[in-house]
Amino acid sequence: MTRDDIIREFSRIYYDEERKSPILKSTRWMGVPIIKAPTDLWMYQEIMWETRPDIVIETGTWQGGSALWFAHMAEIMGMFGVISIDIHHIVGLPQHEKIKYLTGSSVSQEIVSMVDGYIRGAEGRMGRTPRVMVVLDSDHRASHVLQELDIYSRLVTPGCYLVVEDGNINGHPVLAGWGAGPMEAVHSWAPRHPEFRVDRSREKFLLTMNPEGFLKREGSDG
């Protein structure tokens, strides 16, 4: 087996789609379910420390484990806060002073206006334009991810990251029958947006649920 074969096979074993991903479904952050590979969480920590975003925008809340994780990182790093968006109103989400939950479609004008308002409010309180990082983890259909890319890419600060999660589905290497998903959306969108580049160095831990999904906005905000 080649190195790439080993990585793909381990990814399939880890995801274990035949048993509905029992490892992922039993992963917790401070007791709260979180469907993310620990290697990706560690990479987020490295990215956040290096690029110093003030705000992380997350689409797809689920049970709030990743929102809480980002909030704890925000607290440690002195960031302004975290926005977590989900189409469903979820009862019992973990609460933290750094988290702002929004309920609605991530691509609706109402939610986008609320996100813009949050950023403007942060700018007023901080006295400068906040640095923004975005993580897309909601509806994984390519059509929806493309809408999110068009909407949220404009908010990403030069030097910061736009992360498209779950590019591993649709046979990359799991859930081969899914249909066009996040990776296909990136393949369609990225060539038209040279201000972003796919940063494969962020896959250095080999196991990632976000292959080709770490997009860095080029340039510097000075």
Description:
The protein is an alpha/beta fold and 222 residues long. The chain has a single domain (3-217), classed as Rossmann fold. The protein is built from 7 helices and 9 strands; from the N terminus they run H-H-E-E-H-E-H-E-E-H-E-H-E-H-E-E. It has a 7-stranded mixed β-sheet with strand order 5-4-3-6-7-9-8, with helices on both faces. Strands 1-2 form a two-stranded antiparallel sheet. Helix 6 (142-152) crosses helix 7 (182-189). The chain is globular. The mean pLDDT is 97.
How many domain modules?
1
Named CATH architecture:
3-Layer(aba) Sandwich
CATH superfamily: Vaccinia Virus protein VP39
CATH level 1 class label: Alpha Beta
Strand content is 15-25%
The arrangement of helices and strands along the chain is HHEEHEHEEHEHEHEE
> Termini separation (Å)?
46 Å
Largest beta sheet, briefly? Answer: 7 strands, mixed
Low-confidence stretches: none
